[in-house]
């Protein structure tokens, strides 16, 4: 029910816009993300952008995950 | 897809599982509140790979919508002047006698919409009909439904109304902390994208439980679990944010402003759980004209549950679907007795779709 999907904004006209979801394009209400522009990624839930994705934070999370040392099973392969 | 695929890497998942196994020196119980997270955990078998007891919470708005509210929806949808609109996942939720999909098959004008704004457009396009939208959901969905009401008000659409059944997560977590024995919580990432996490800080302090705001992909869930386990092993009980790419401490202030304008906090009945104080939203007095329950005079309906269904214990995390004698026999996703078997995010449906069967049932299989 709280499913949210990341989409890339491809067009914006006031409170409404279009977002691209891996090739599928849909109309999105951008009223709650006034700071989001074309090229930004937003989390879309029931046709509404509820959050702008923060690229720096995403990279930081991935860096933490990638810093976890691998197990012996990975070394032996 | 960017922001999804990176969080599904099987090599990193195995490393995280190794970290959790190394960090957990006790068998902790962790509740994931959100049904979307339950679905991923059970489908990927995450709970079977780690030395932690995952307890599934009440975080499926479809599942906790009161039976009486479903009956009100059915009563409104049966009226000839009404176009009844809803998100798709409410259509198969059983009311006392039937469900919206069966009502549609018998001729009621029930339509699935993708966004609440689609329902507003239907009202504008059909001035001779009454368009009603079934406004269910957590804090994640409430801003979208608030915008539908604001848009209808701005456009002066007198033929649009909403049947509201909104539920709030923190009061339910508080109720669970009073009764159930879980050591920590994964807070629902998209609820927090709207609301932030300041509401959880007093809960973590009062009940001395770690709470980690967590995303929905397998690596998000594993990292959230690892962060919780580390807090538990170190004796900390703080609110931490695993889902930093989407959630800020204050949430989405624009969405929260819309909620404050359109709704008021009120007591709410949770299906299978009962009444929880201050755990729901109702329309604010200045938007009462858009309240479908008042407009169609169905506010007084009450209802009774099927006696075999243990949905309440499932939703509180005190039982699993495998404890229910009706699970997989009387009650299946095709013929659900109770709401947790209806939605893919319901705990019973998540178990059933993952092929989990009761011990007794396993023994009689060839």
TrEMBL record, chain A:
SUPFAM superfamilies: HupF/HypC-like (SSF159127). Pfam families: HupF_HypC (PF01455). InterPro entries: Hydgase_assmbl_chp_CS, Hydrogenase_HupF/HypC. It comes from the Bacteria. Gene3D superfamilies: 2.30.30.140. Belongs to the HupF/HypC family. This is HypC/HybG/HupF family hydrogenase formation chaperone. It comes from Actinomadura luzonensis. The lineage of its organism: Bacteria, Bacillati, Actinomycetota, Actinomycetes, Streptosporangiales.
TrEMBL record, chain B:
Keywords: Iron, Metal-binding. Transmembrane segments: none annotated. It holds the Pfam family HypD. Gene3D superfamilies: 6.10.20.100, HypD, alpha/beta domain 2. It comes from the Bacteria. InterPro entries: Hyd_form_HypD, HypD_1, HypD_2_sf. PANTHER family: HYDROGENASE MATURATION FACTOR HYPD, HYDROGENASE PROTEIN ASSEMBLY PROTEIN HYPD. Belongs to the HypD family. This is Hydrogenase formation protein HypD. It comes from Actinomadura luzonensis.
């Amino acid at each position: 029910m709280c499913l949210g999907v990341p989409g890339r904004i491809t067009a914006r006209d006031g409170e409404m816009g279009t977002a691209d979801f891996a090739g599928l394009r849909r109309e999105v209400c951008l009223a709650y993300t006034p700071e989001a522009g074309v090229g930004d990624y937003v989390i879309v839930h029931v046709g509404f952008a509820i959050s702008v994705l923060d690229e720096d934070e995403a990279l930081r999370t991935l860096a933490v995950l990638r810093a976890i040392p691998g197990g012996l099973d990975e070394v032996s392969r | 897809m960017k922001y999804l695929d990176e969080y599904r890497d099987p090599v990193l998942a195995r490393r995280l599982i190794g970290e959790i196994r190394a960090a957990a020196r006790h068998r902790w119980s962790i509740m994931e509140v959100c049904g979307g997270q339950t679905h991923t955990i059970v489908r990927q078998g995450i709970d079977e790979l780690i030395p932690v007891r995952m307890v599934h919470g009440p975080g499926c708005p479809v599942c906790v919508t009161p039976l009486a509210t479903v009956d009100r929806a059915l009563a409104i949808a049966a009226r000839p002047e009404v176009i009844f609109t809803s998100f798709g996942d409410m259509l198969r939720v059983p009311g006392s006698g039937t469900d919206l999909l069966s009502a549609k098959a018998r001729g009621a004008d029930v339509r699935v919409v993708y966004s609440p704004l689609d329902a507003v457009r239907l009202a504008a396009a059909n001035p001779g009909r009454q368009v009603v939208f079934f406004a269910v959901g957590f804090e994640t969905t409430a801003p979208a439904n608030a915008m539908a009401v604001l848009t209808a008000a701005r456009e002066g659409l007198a033929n649009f109304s909403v049947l509201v059944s909104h539920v709030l997560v923190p009061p339910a977590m508080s109720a669970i902390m009073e009764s159930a024995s879980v050591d920590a919580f994964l807070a629902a990432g998209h609820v927090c994208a709207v609301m932030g996490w300041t509401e959880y800080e007093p809960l973590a302090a009062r009940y001395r439980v770690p709470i980690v705001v967590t995303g929905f992909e397998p690596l998000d869930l594993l990292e959230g679990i690892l962060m919780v386990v580390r807090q538990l092993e170190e004796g900390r009980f703080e609110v931490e944010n695993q889902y930093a790419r989407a959630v800020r401490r204050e949430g989405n202030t624009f969405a929260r402003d819309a909620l404050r304008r359109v709704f008021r906090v009120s007591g709410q009945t949770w299906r299978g759980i009962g009444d929880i104080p201050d755990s729901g939203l109702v329309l604010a007095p200045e938007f009462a004209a858009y309240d479908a329950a008042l407009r169609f005079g169905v506010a007084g309906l009450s209802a009774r549950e099927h006696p075999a269904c243990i949905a309440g214990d499932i939703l509180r995390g005190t039982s699993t679907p495998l404890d229910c004698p009706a699970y997989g026999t009387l009650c299946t996703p095709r013929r659900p007795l109770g709401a947790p078997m209806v939605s893919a995010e319901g705990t019973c449906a998540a178990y059933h779709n993952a092929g989990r069967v009761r011990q007794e049932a396993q023994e009689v299989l060839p």
